[in-house]
C-alpha cells in the first residue's frame, strides 16, 4: 500500500486568516513499511513541500502505525 495521508487542520472549507498557518495531518502505510516522508501540495499538485514528521516515531517492528506530520505555510 503506498503512503496514504489525511489533513486534519485546517478543516476542509475553513476560512483562514492571512499569515502563518500550520497544516497538520497523519499518514500511514502498509506492508510493515515505515512512513519516512510526506509531501504536501497546496496548489493542486503544481508544487510540493516536504512536511515535518511530528510526534513519536513507531517502535521498531511497528512500522504499520500512523505518524503525525505538520507543515508551516504562509497564507496570502
TrEMBL record:
Gene3D superfamilies: 2.60.40.650. Keywords: Metal-binding, Molybdenum, Oxidoreductase. GO terms for biological process: sulfur compound metabolic process. Pfam families: Mo-co_dimer (PF03404). One of its GO terms (cellular component) is mitochondrion. The gene is Suox. PANTHER family: SULFITE OXIDASE, MITOCHONDRIAL (PTHR19372:SF7), SULFITE REDUCTASE (PTHR19372). One of its GO terms (molecular function) is heme binding. SUPFAM superfamilies: E set domains. Transmembrane segments: none annotated. Residues 1-75 form the Moybdenum cofactor oxidoreductase dimerisation domain. Its cofactor is Mo-molybdopterin. This is SUOX oxidase.
Amino acid at each position: 500500500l503506498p503512503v496514504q495521508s489525511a489533513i486534519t487542520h485546517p478543516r476542509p472549507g475553513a476560512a483562514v486568516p492571512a499569515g502563518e498557518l500550520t497544516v497538520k495531518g497523519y499518514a500511514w502505510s502498509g506492508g510493515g513499511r515505515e512512513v519516512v516522508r510526506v509531501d504536501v501540495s497546496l496548489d493542486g499538485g503544481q508544487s510540493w513541500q516536504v512536511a515535518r514528521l511530528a510526534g513519536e516515531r513507531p517502535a521498531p517492528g511497528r512500522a504499520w502505525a500512523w505518524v503525525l506530520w505538520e507543515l508551516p505555510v504562509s497564507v496570502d
